[in-house]
Design brief:
The complex is a heterodimer of chains A (98) and B (216). Chain A is mostly helical. Chain A has 5 helices and no strands. Classes of the chains: A mainly alpha (98), B alpha/beta (216).
């Protein structure tokens, strides 16, 4: 089964599938990682658009997996930048100092 | 009412059994799942004093556990276990299988309910519910809320929820079942969401948020 098989167009269903299957604990091929990154970015965006931190939570787990296994440093830097932005945005919404 | 406890946490089981006994809920059988050497010593000692049987199984969903539960013929099975239990096990007791969820239902189903509630400004507490095939979706028997106090941290809040709320709510629910004095309240699952294990970066942010909100 490839990662794309796990995910439908519905982000909430995708989040459930990723969490229930604990995708970050499995072995994946290098070809799956760009798709993981795309989904993670979609989750981080959804977290801000929908004010639902569950999406950011799942994205953080995917990002850990990517930082551990993926060799595309440029893409990883972009992912980390977006992750930091999403966390700062959440902190701001909660009234915490960025 | 013949009660059986299915647990993977023998020490927590002693806390619960002791408290249940103070409110006249007695257990005749305790099944320890995935036993590890030494962890059940206190439970065995307590069993000798209080007259219940202790059994051990490797897997709560295997045939051995199913056969054991069928031979016990319990009216109620109480779960203190972090595993998902299969439907064929849930269907064994004559009355129901019961669980205490460390969060308020139907709003906060799943894991890390306290932290998710703090993050979203929602209620914190414990819910005792009947167990069905879903995750924390069964009818509600009892519920206790926990107020957040000045100076609370995630540790003080968690400890207070454990010592002041968790077993108390579970026994509230069992008492209602025993006395047959209430209809379990069906959950409207659309009124809540399922939450998952919280990543450590988010958990740290929530811990900081709680301190920020309770510092004055």
């Amino acid at each position: 089964m490839t990662f794309s098989d796990l995910v439908t167009e519905d982000l909430e269903i995708a989040m459930h599938r990723i969490e229930v299957r604990r995708v970050w604990e499995n072995d994946w091929s290098e070809a799956d990682y760009p798709f993981f990154a795309d989904i993670s970015i979609a989750f981080m965006q959804a977290s801000q658009d929908l004010d639902d931190a569950r999406y950011l939570n799942t994205a953080l787990k995917l990002n850990d997996l990517l930082r551990l296994h993926w060799r595309d440093q440029l893409a990883l830097d972009e992912l980390t930048h977006r992750e930091d932005q999403a966390l700062v945005s959440l902190r701001t919404r909660l009234g915490l100092m960025p | 009412m013949k009660c059986c406890l299915l647990t993977s946490a023998p020490v927590a089981a002693v806390h619960f059994l002791y408290y249940a006994q103070t409110r006249r809920i007695k257990f005749s059988e305790v099944i320890v799942v995935e036993p590890t050497p030494g962890q059940s010593d206190l439970l065995h000692e307590y069993a000798g004093i209080n007259g219940f049987n202790v059994h051990e199984v490797d897997d709560p969903n295997n045939q051995t556990c199913q056969d054991l539960l069928c031979s016990i013929k319990p009216d109620v099975v109480v779960l203190i276990i972090s595993r998902i239990i299969t439907r064929r096990i849930l269907e064994i007791p004559n009355i129901a299988t019961v669980n205490a969820h460390a969060g308020i239902l139907p709003q906060y189903r799943g894991l890390d309910s306290r932290r998710w509630a703090i993050l979203e400004g929602g209620p914190v507490g414990v819910t005792c519910h009947l167990v069905d095939a879903g995750v924390d979706t069964g009818p509600i028997l009892a519920q206790r809320f926990l107020g957040i106090e000045r100076g609370d941290t995630i540790q003080t809040l968690s400890e207070r929820n454990y010592y002041v709320n968790k077993w108390q709510t579970l026994v509230d629910g069992l008492t209602r079942l025993k006395e047959n004095n209430m209809q379990p309240k069906l959950q409207r699952c659309s009124a809540g969401r399922q939450y998952f294990w919280m990543h450590s970066r988010l958990a740290r942010l929530v811990d900081e948020l709680l301190i920020y909100r309770t510092k004055s």
